Amino acid sequence: MTQDFDVIFKDDVLAGLVPANLSDQFFDALYGDADEGAYDISLHYGGNSNDELKFEFHLDERPGKCLACNLTYGLPEVFSRHPLININGIVKNLGTLLDSKYTISGWKIGRTRELSRRLHIIPLIISVKA
User: Any alpha helices (H) in the chain, and if so which ranges?
Assistant: First the structure.
């Protein structure tokens, strides 16, 4: 892959696809109260290899909450289908940022990884064809 993905998928661009208020909307839908949420959700570019673009949903612990106490390991399944998260829409929008010689052929979501007690990551792998 020859496109400079680090430039295209900067944090400010990805914040437009997964805005800060998405976390509150997600927890309001899940629990009926945004204040019940233990983490904020953001999307980050994690690199590429061969025919894959790697992104990460970061789950950052909110002040006064306990991320490690929450059930983040079941979230990949929830994220893959939840209409507010809308991974299909995110992937489609990411595809519009690609050079026209690339097309997205699919995506998959990985298992939650605990990088620290305050940061968990859910991988989003996008398959690309040239």
Answer: 5-8, 11-17, 21-31, 75-81, 87-97
